[in-house]
Amino acid sequence: MSYPADAPTYIPKDQFVKYLDSYIERFDIQPKYNTAIESCTHDEGKDCWISLACDVTTSVVVRYKSKFLVVASGENSAANIPVIPGLHDFTGEAIHSSLYKSGAAYSGKNALVVGCGNSGMEIAYDLASHGANTSIVVRSPVHVMTKEIIRLGMTLVQHTPVNIVDDFLVRMSNFVFGDLSRHGIVKPKAGPLLLKEKTGRSAVIDVGTVGLIKKGIIKVHGNISKINGNVVEFEDKKESSFDVIVFATGYKSMANTWLKNGESMLNNDGLPKKEFPNHWKGANGLYCAGLARRGLAGIAIDAKNIASDILSTYNTHRFEMN
Predict the structure, then answer these.
(1) Which is it for the CA torsion 20, 25, 28, 34, positive or negative?
(2) Of the candidates 243, 236, 231, 227, the residue with the CA atom closest to the CA atom of residue 138
(3) Are 128 and 120 a contacting pair, CB within 8 Å?
(4) Residue 319, pLDDT score
(5) Whole-angstrom Cα distance, residue 198 to residue 207?
(6) Cβ-contact 292, 279 below 8 angstroms
(7) Which of 54, 72, 73, 75 is nearest to 64 (CA)?
(8) What is the DSSP annotation of 64-98?
(9) What is the pTM of this model?
(10) What is the pLDDT of residues 218-263, one digit of tens each?
(11) Under a CB-based contact definition with an 8 Å cutoff, are residues 207 and 120 in contact?
(12) Is the separation of the CB atoms in 11 and 3 below 8 Å?
């Protein structure tokens, strides 16, 4: 189902929610809200999946029986915070980015953001804009783009080889932002589109953070070595004290905590064993959508493959019954 013809290029939150509501109504989908999955197990004897789900408002557990099971709980199910010596004894406030609301509460405080993806960069900008003395840990190389550059790249790559488009995007980024390596931000060797395709890592869409880094308003650090009280020591042996640390360090899949008998499809990290585009199907009617780190485009491909395969299996079964 397409967006309305008059929809803007970048969909606002409220309009996206309205689209989802319309989608649910059009296809008569019946979501079970406030419900948490507890377990999904394959019954070999009956050749079906038995799923137990709990209504979190009433604590009532409901049992579902199905021929097919689609794992679409996402690769970003639970907050991921790295193991850092001394973190548990940090005397300030340490939170994951999923709990971050606003920089207003940290005005005048020393704040450290760990992670330089889109969330980390935006949080750093918000903290600095609210008067916090802000630093950010850049742990790995990253591409920094504008949304206009990325949109242009996504258009060009439909007609031009990805390596040529990537080279163009990097040149455009250099023209807009200059050499950021002297500010502690290094580009990956792979281009932004190829990197997204191979690893799922997206380029950072700058919201003004780079400008504050260049002005020295936001300080850039390398990885953290250890924490002692409220003092953070970095790998270059420099130390700084902080009142709050925000971990914008991503999420992880939790599928393995509730999916039993899923070893035909998922690895120990709850992600597909097989590489894209052959990752989406397991054994015994088991499928996964949105776990290949390919964004919305990858989810769309997964959904079409799964729907086609289920329909084919259903038609085959019905033919055999006749």
Answers:
(1) positive
(2) 236
(3) no
(4) 61
(5) 25
(6) yes
(7) 54
(8) EEES-EEE-S-S--EE-----TTGGG-SSEEEEGG
(9) 0.82
(10) 999 999 999 999 999 999 999 999 999 999 999 989 999 999 999 9
(11) no
(12) yes
Contact 260, 41 (CB under 8 A): yes
Rg, Å, the chain Cα set: 23
CA distance to 18, 112, 130, 314, per residue, from 67 (Å): 31, 49, 53, 10
Q: Report whether 125 contacts 213 (CB < 8 A).
A: no
Residue-by-residue DSSP string for 266-289: B-TTSSBSSPTTS-SB-STTEEES
Q: What is the DSSP letter of 138?
A: -
Sheet with 93-96: list strands edge to edge. Answer: 93-96, 244-247, 110-114, 133-137, 218-221
- Rounded distance, CA 135 to CA 216, Å? 10
Q: Are strands 244-247 and 110-114 parallel, antiparallel or unpaired?
A: parallel
pLDDT given for residue 235 in this prediction: 94
Q: Is 49 helix (H, G, I), strand (E, B) or coil?
A: strand
